């Protein structure tokens, strides 16, 4: 766990001090039982232990997602605006940037249409060369 002080602007020219606690995914993974249950949704860490009994979708689904990234399951259900607002009550910190990087870069590769990391290094330069060739061919003399 690491805490970082950060400053941001409140829109009135005033600085606002905020403190973010970062958690490594391995720490989150340890909180995977009904005694203590944490999960990650969109890079944020939530302690939903006290929410287990109250979750309208039941405790079973939360236990299935205990200690892991539940973003996809959370979105698949199509949770309401109210449900998203409720998240704030259980927020305890952010996923450590070193762990997020891996998640974001693999998402970027998927967006770019590269399903496997291994093919990235080969296909990306080839695609760039192809685009450059197309531009040169179309350029008027
Ligand atoms: C802290 C995280 C969560 C909160 C605050 C939350 C909140 C809620 C709320 C308020 C509802 C009622 C329907 C709505 O307003 O959308 C609901 C339903 C439900 N939730 Fe969650 N939820 C959370 C996480 C999850 C996760 C990780 C799953 C995993 C699959 C899940 C599965 C469901 C299901 C299956 C329903 C029932 C949907 C239905 O009956 O139509 N929820 N949740």
Which key features would you list for this structure?
141 residues; alpha+beta; Flavocytochrome B2, Chain A, domain 1; 6-stranded mixed sheet; binds protoporphyrin IX containing FE; membrane; heme; metal-binding
Tell me briefly what this model is.
The chain is an alpha+beta fold and 141 residues long. The protein has helices at 25-30, 59-64, 71-77, 81-90, 97-111, 117-138; strands at residues 2-9, 15-23, 32-33, 36-41, 44-47, 91-95. Bound molecules: protoporphyrin IX containing FE.
Task: Please tell me about this protein's structure.
By secondary structure, this protein is an alpha+beta fold. The chain has a domain at 21-100: Roll (Flavocytochrome B2, Chain A, domain 1), CATH 3.10.120.10. Helix content is 47%, strand content 24%. The chain has helices spanning 25-30, 59-64, 71-77, 81-90, 97-111, 117-138; strands at 2-9, 15-23, 32-33, 36-41, 44-47, 91-95. It has a six-stranded mixed beta sheet with strand order 1-2-6-5-4-3. The longest helix has 22 residues, at 117-138. The protein is globular, with a radius of gyration of 21 Å. Mean pLDDT is 78; it is low at 114-131. Protoporphyrin IX containing FE is lined by residues 46, 48, 51, 55-57, 61-62, 65, 70, 73-74, 77, 79-80, 82-83, 86-87, 90. Protoporphyrin IX containing FE binds at residues 46, 48, 51, 55-57, 61-62, 65, 70, 73-74, 77, 79-80, 82-83, 86-87, 90.
């Amino acid at each position: 766990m690491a805490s970082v002080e950060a400053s941001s602007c409140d829109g009135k020219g005033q600085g606002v001090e905020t403190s973010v606690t970062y958690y490594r995914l391995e720490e989150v993974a340890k909180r995977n039982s009904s005694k203590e249950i944490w999960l990650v949704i969109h890079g944020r860490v939530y302690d939903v232990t006290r929410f287990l009994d109250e979750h309208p979708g039941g405790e079973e689904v939360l236990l299935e997602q205990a200690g892991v990234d539940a973003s996809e399951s959370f979105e698949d259900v199509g949770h309401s605006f109210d449900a998203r607002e409720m998240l704030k009550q259980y927020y305890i910190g952010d996923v450590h940037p070193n762990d997020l990087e891996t998640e974001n870069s693999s998402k970027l590769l998927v967006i770019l249409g590269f399903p496997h990391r291994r093919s990235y290094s080969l296909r990306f330069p080839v695609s760039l060369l192809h685009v450059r060739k197309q531009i040169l061919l179309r350029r008027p003399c």
